[in-house]
Amino acid sequence: MNDDAADVQRVLAGDVDAYAALVDRYYDRCARFAVRMLGNRDDAEDALQVTFVRAYRALDRYQERDRFSAWLYRILVNQCRSIAARRAHREKVFVREEALLLNAPDRSTSWTGEDEEFVQRVLNELDPLLREAFLLKYIEEMSYEEMSTLTGVGVSALKMRVKRACDRLRERWERIKHD
Amino acid sequence: MTDSDQHPYVEWIAREAQRPVVTDPAARERIMLAVRAEPMPQRRSRVWQRVFEPRALRLSPIASTLLAAGLVGIGVITGKVVNNRDVRPPVGEPKVHAEVPQLPVSDTVVKFVFVAPEASKVSVVGDFNGWNATTTPMVRTANDSVWTVTLPLTAGRHVYSFVVDGSSWNADPHAPLAPDDGFGRPNSVRIVGRGSAL
Amino acid sequence: MIRLAATRPVLRQLCSSLLAGILVVLCTRTGAAQDPDPLLKLDPNSRFAIELMLDSAKAEGIPTRPLLSRALEGINRKADGKTVAAAVRKALGHLRTARSALGGVAEDELIAAAAVLEAGAKPAQLAVFRVRHKDRNDLAAFTYWADLITRGVPSEDASSAITKLWQDGADDATFYSLWKSVQSDILQGLNPGAALQNRIRETPGRAPSSKSPPDGPQETQSL
Question: Using N-to-C axis directions, what is the helix angle for A41-57 and A68-86, rounded to 10°?
């Protein structure tokens, strides 16, 4: 039994605080996906809050053979889609102030706010479905099978979305170069 | 999908996007607060609710092969992203993006003067010649200490420095300074073409 | 026949070397001054970051010329990619702030205003100049302002002095004259702040023009 399964069993046995271990284990990674997907921290935090609470509610349905992370991500991906759809009218541009808020304290792997803003802007320009596929493939480094389980989309369609996302990014680079 | 066209820009975006984001430390506590307010999940029957039911993927042999190839492609991409050793330049011949300004059809001809008795060569570098020390060499005058060059410059503000013997950058003692722009030493400013005292 | 066969590869090699040599000479001669894209000298990460910044600036209507110039300066100063990217980022930030403070101004004025911020003036001090007089160009005022702070005059003092002169309608020659005398005093060892205070008293302002000057801070009031 892995850590995730063990923690789930503890929660089901009545130890609510054991859920904190699961939250701790997955929060940062989920946050990264949510922020990259939604383009701002407020929306991302909403998505994360709902995701972890819904995952908790549904724990009774979790089975040991399932990978907790995949299961959690399915909820997260759906949440991000819902929030994006509900707030489609809002400006998707990654506001500079948000970038400053996201400015990481001295962690060697994380960014200055300014670079993050630029990359996020590029990601925001991708169609949401392409962005989602790109993030799952290259940021979460999932297999197409996992992605298909998560999103309910067929593997070949996902491959096409990833390819299109890469094409868009490449085109964008060419535009930058040739302007 | 095998990403045989692993464009370095795409790799870069992916690499940058993989960095962690800063999270609000209070957010996790808020989650736990909400969770504690929920009724305890009880172990129920193991019949899956539809919404959480994993989809059984039935792959044809071709699709399986493609998937396997795709997994190999992921490995290659990941390897490349991690290693970042042989990042190729962008596909195709890069056009001139950074247009280094050539000496323009100008508004005014401007003389630069710098005193450097010990120098064997002096050049002026600035926003008018891409800061390239080989583009605008100065000439020693009859007075051995004084180096000059006369350039056509467009009207407006120009920032410049003098480079002595190829490596020592010096501000113009007779011109206003530009603030240190991140390279440690201030440059000088010349305003051209407005009939000003500069 | 054997001899011929043996010399052919040698000949081929000779020709290739000759050709390569000619090409090297040609490229060195014609390409001496400029690379096709100087940014290629930077590591890919820094290059991409700078290209994106240039793209952002373009999208926001901020001049890219000073940003590119900053990058080229860094490259020619042999700074590492991170330093160059940081310098470009800083420049972009100052240009943005100057744009916010001043609104729409000529490119050179914007760049000079950004230099004032880079030297250490506060955006609010720059914002005083937002009220534009149609017949005035503040390039000289901004240039000397940035210089005074860079030479060590306290930012508040320099800002007050320049602003006051500006509000009094001083022309470029007046700003130049003030700067020249303060610079001379500093070079002779006078404390920069004191040098400015001495010289500002000597500097004639003009009587306010018939247009009422913009509301701004009084001389002693810090912004």
Answer: 130
